[in-house]
């Protein structure tokens, strides 16, 4: 009888001990398990490494030069993460005065070793921007994508015209804005944005030439891969973008992107038909740009097949 009581007490004690251990594990979420602790620590470490970082590269312009296409194409690279929207930090006072913490908060989350890229085409023509970018990071890499300045001007006007028509606002024709008594109106803002040599001069006062990579926007549209390979080298990225990442969309008239079995085409504003401009006015525009273009070619050490 005594042995039966002692055995029952022993079993009860063992059950109580087991129950106590189970309750402790439930309260701690199982952290007493060595295998779980290791996994949890690794997961936490990985999460903490993912953070918003200031950009290591910025696409500074030009407006209507192909900045969105370049950004999306660079984003094909596994070591690149891009800011999804134009930030306008360095060229808008209300944004700039919010400080670098605000700017960083606009960036994507990245892992160590990944490159953050931001693009705001308004940076290129804003004279206060180069010094501000230098103050943020004097080692930042800059990408400048350019296209025929006359074509860029017409594309610039076309976008403004589309916006005004959408909002039912009045508008002037391109020829009315471009010509004054039959001569080129040098005060027209869209024309001033196409004077690449003037804007690049501000950047070269602050940054060395080798820190600015010039992308041929016209070539990027015709055949994206060679221009992307040059950009990869400039950004010290491993060559991970290939010709298989692109396919020509005959309906849209330009290349679309392929990544991990998914395709992506730029939105409908890309490839929009240009606003009309007479042949005579366009020829005047081309003649006007001859000297500014030559100065730009000398600055960058290469020439382009522009009008």
Compact summary:
The chain has 307 residues and is an alpha/beta fold. The chain has a domain at 51-149 and 193-271: P-loop containing nucleotide triphosphate hydrolases (Rossmann fold). The chain has helices spanning 2-28, 34-49, 67-74, 93-96, 100-105, 129-136, 149-166, 174-178, 189-193, 196-204, 217-222, 224-234, 279-300; strands at 51-52, 57-61, 80-82, 109-110, 115-119, 141-146, 179-180, 183-184, 212-216, 246-249, 254-259, 262-264.
The helix/strand class is: alpha/beta
Q: In percent terms, what proportion of residues is strand? A: 5-15%
For the secondary structure, the number of strands is: 12
CATH architecture of the domain at 51-149 and 193-271: 3-Layer(aba) Sandwich
Biggest pleated-sheet summary:
5 strands, parallel
Termini distance?
Answer: 111 Å
Radius of gyration: 29 Å
Determine the mean pLDDT: 87
Low-confidence sequence ranges: 13-17, 19-47
Order of helices and strands: HHEEHEHHEEHEHHEEHHEHHEEEH
CATH topology of the domain at 51-149 and 193-271: Rossmann fold
CATH top-level class of the domain at 51-149 and 193-271: Alpha Beta
Fraction of residues in helices?
A: 40-55%
What's the helix count?
13
The protein's oligomeric status is: single chain
What is the H level of CATH, i.e. the homologous superfamily of the domain at 51-149 and 193-271? P-loop containing nucleotide triphosphate hydrolases
Overall 3D shape: globular
Strand order of the largest sheet: 3-5-2-6-9
């Amino acid at each position: 009888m005594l042995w039966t009581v002692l055995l029952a007490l022993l079993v009860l004690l063992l059950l109580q001990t087991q129950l106590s251990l189970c309750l402790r594990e439930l309260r701690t979420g199982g952290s007493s398990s060595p295998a779980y602790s290791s996994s949890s620590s690794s997961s936490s470490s990985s999460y903490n490494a993912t953070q918003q970082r200031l950009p290591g590269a910025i696409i500074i312009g030009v407006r209507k030069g192909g900045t969105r296409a370049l950004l999306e194409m660079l984003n094909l690279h596994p070591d690149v993460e891009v800011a999804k929207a134009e930030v306008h930090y360095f060229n808008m006072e209300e944004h700039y005065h919010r400080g670098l913490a605000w700017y960083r908060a606009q960036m994507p989350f990245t892992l160590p070793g990944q490159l953050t890229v931001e693009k705001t085409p308004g940076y290129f023509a804003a004279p206060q921007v180069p010094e501000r970018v230098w103050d943020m990071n004097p080692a930042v890499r800059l990408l400048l994508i350019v296209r025929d300045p006359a074509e860029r001007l017409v594309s610039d006007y076309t976008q403004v015209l589309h916006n005004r028509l959408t909002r039912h606002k009045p508008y002037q024709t391109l020829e009315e804005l471009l010509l004054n008594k039959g001569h080129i109106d040098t005060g027209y803002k869209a024309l001033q944005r196409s004077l690449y040599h003037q804007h690049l001069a501000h950047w070269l006062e602050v940054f060395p030439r080798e820190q600015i990579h010039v992308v041929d926007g016209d070539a990027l549209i015709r055949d994206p891969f060679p221009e992307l390979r040059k950009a990869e080298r400039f950004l010290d990225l491993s060559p991970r973008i290939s010709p298989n990442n692109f396919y020509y969309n005959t309906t849209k008239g330009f290349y679309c992107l392929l990544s991990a079995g998914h395709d992506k085409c730029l939105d409908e504003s890309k490839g929009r038909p240009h606003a009309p401009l007479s042949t005579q006015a366009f020829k005047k525009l081309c003649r006007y740009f001859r000297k500014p273009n030559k100065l730009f070619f000398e600055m960058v050490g290469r020439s382009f097949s522009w009008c």
